């Protein structure tokens, strides 16, 4: 059953969420090695009565951002949580003046394409994005690089 968007509760992540975020990411094979508390200013979580059910974040580097760590609990996938998180983060980044959002994905290219992202060559990303730990070491070369321009 698809959750109604109003049933998805989103909020800004905070330092108290760090361990739960890392556990959710690690359980789904996503990197956490470079995740630190100062990054949480650009992370959002979806919650229910049992705690965090989804997370999304970004590293903001001037007018560019690296979207990272979109994840929902396995039993709640295909219910709109990822969509709600993605759209909320895009709005947050737009409000902050971010102009371009980049990401790397091994399994969610179609999902992100439905949300306005398109493939881009890794060599064509701005230097500050290419220099992130995510780009340099944590995501394999086989990951698809994507970009979305914001208004």
Give the averaged pLDDT, no decimals: 87
The fraction of residues in strands falls at 25-35%
Structural classification:
alpha+beta
Per CATH, which architecture?
Answer: 3-Layer(aba) Sandwich
What can you tell me about this protein's structure?
It is a single chain. The chain is an alpha+beta fold and 151 residues long. Helices cover 26% and strands 29% of the residues. It is globular and about 45 Å long. A 7-stranded mixed β-sheet has the order 1-2-3-4-5-7-6, with helices on both faces. Mean pLDDT is 87; it is low at 1-6. The chain contains 5 helices and 7 strands; from the N terminus they run βαβββαβαβααβ.
Defining key terms:
151 residues; alpha+beta; Aminopeptidase; 7-stranded mixed β-sheet; 5 helices; 26% helix; disordered N terminus
SSE layout:
Blueprint: E1 9-12, H1 18-27, E2 43-48, E3 51-61, E4 64-72, H2 81-95, E5 100-105, H3 109-113, E6 118-119, H4 127-130, H5 133-138, E7 144-149
Parallel strand pairs: 4-5
Antiparallel strand pairs: 1-2, 2-3, 3-4, 5-7, 6-7
Summarize this entry quickly.
The chain has helices spanning 18-27, 81-95, 109-113, 127-130, 133-138, and strands at residues 9-12, 43-48, 51-61, 64-72, 100-105, 118-119, 144-149. 26% of the residues lie in helices and 29% in strands.
């Amino acid at each position: 059953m698809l959750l109604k968007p109003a049933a998805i509760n989103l909020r800004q992540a905070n330092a108290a969420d760090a361990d739960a975020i890392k556990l959710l990411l690690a359980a789904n094979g996503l990197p956490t090695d470079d995740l630190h508390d100062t990054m949480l200013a650009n992370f959002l979580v979806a919650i229910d009565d049992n705690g965090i059910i989804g997370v999304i974040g970004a590293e903001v580097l001037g007018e560019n951002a690296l979207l990272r760590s979109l994840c929902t609990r396995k039993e709640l996938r295909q219910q709109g949580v990822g969509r709600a998180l993605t759209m909320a983060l895009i709005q947050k980044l737009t409000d902050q003046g971010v102009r371009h959002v980049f990401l790397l994905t091994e399994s969610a290219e179609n999902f992100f394409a439905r949300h306005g992202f398109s493939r881009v060559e890794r060599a064509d990303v701005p230097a500050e994005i290419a220099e992130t730990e995510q780009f340099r070491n944590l995501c394999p070369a086989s990951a698809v690089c994507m970009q979305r321009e914001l208004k």
